[in-house]
Amino acid sequence: MTADHPHIALLRQRLEALGADEEARAALAALEAEIEAALDEKAKFVSVITHELRLPMTSIQGYTDLLRGGAMGEINENQLNFLNVIRANVHRMNALVTSLSDMTKAEAGRLALEASPQALRPLVDKAAEAKKEVLTEFQQTLDVQVPAELPLVQADPQRVQQILEHLLDNAAKYSDPGSSISITAEDHGKSIRLKVHDTGYGIAPEDLPRVAEPFFRSDDQRVRDRYGWGLGLSVCRSLLALMHGDLGLESRPGEGTTAWVDLPKA
Predict the structure, then answer these.
(1) Domain 116-264 belongs to what architecture?
(2) In a 3-state reduction of DSSP, which class is residue 251?
(3) Which residues pair with 144 in a beta bridge?
(4) Alpha-carbon span 233 to 170, nearest angstrom
(5) What residue spans of 69-137 are helical by DSSP H?
(6) Which positions ≥6 away from 55 have C-beta within 8 Å?
(7) What is the pLDDT of residues 158-214, one digit of tens each?
(8) pLDDT tens digits, one per residue of 7-26
(9) Closest CA relative to residue 235, chosen from 145, 169, 151
(10) Strands 180-187, 141-145: parallel, antiparallel or unpaired by DSSP?
(11) What CATH number does the domain located at 7-107 have?
């Protein structure tokens, strides 16, 4: 797994160019083993932490939903608003826990996917339905133009939906109320390309190369004012790499952003 790390790959290339001897190659192999062991320990640690965090979050959400449903008697509008805030924040914490878990598993080569031939339109529709509440919150409209007759893709359906949900989240969060978001798809030769386009704030040119780095967040105050941890795009890229796909962004400040996802045909 560490053989694919860009810094390790670069170091190996330079050693090869210099005609490195056996001692240097052995040192590099030892370094790779140490990195792999460290990533594995990190993944185990995060797995324990995320498991322990999910238990109370599940309890908080369960009791919150019971209260919202009137299990302990009628609630007034202010109480409902408070409960909705609790519920929304539990969902955000759960998204963070999931992202941390996926990222560390991917780094350690322990993230298992189940790819199979899939039709894209049903997955897009599921993601759109899952994000209906978010789109309503930000007063955005969604236009889906994904032909049902597109060729099947070879992908893990749950992970494709996870990726699309994150891209829709970003499009909604970083656009003004009342704006529109679109999802389109086209045959791209050996792959199918999905595009999520918004008419929002856009991304500064100096930020564009870094937005998929873990924990990176722009200094743009409008971005800082929205909740987020800078993990989503990094996780999306890792998931797509495991499905032999790719992720890219095209953006201009003030003109919106297009996030594209390439998935291999089945």
Answers:
(1) 2-Layer Sandwich (3.30)
(2) strand
(3) 183
(4) 9
(5) 77-107, 120-130, 132-137
(6) none
(7) 999 999 999 999 899 888 888 999 999 999 999 999 999 999 999 988 998 888 888
(8) 566 667 777 766 667 777 77
(9) 169
(10) parallel
(11) 1.10.287
Q: Among all chains, which residue has been given the structure tokens 């890219």?
A: 248
Structure tokens at 40: 């594995």
Domain definitions of the chain by residue range: 7-107, 116-264
Alpha carbon distances (Å) from 30 to 2, 19, 21, 26, 34 = 11, 18, 15, 6, 6
Distances (CA, A) of 18 to 15, 25, 84: 5, 11, 61
For the question of whether the overall pTM of this predicted structure is more than 0.85, the answer is: no
- What sign results for the dihedral spanned by CA atoms 72, 77, 78, 80? positive
Hey, which bits of the chain come out as E strands?
A: 116-118, 141-145, 153-155, 180-187, 191-198, 246-252, 256-264
Q: What is the pLDDT of residue 3?
A: 46
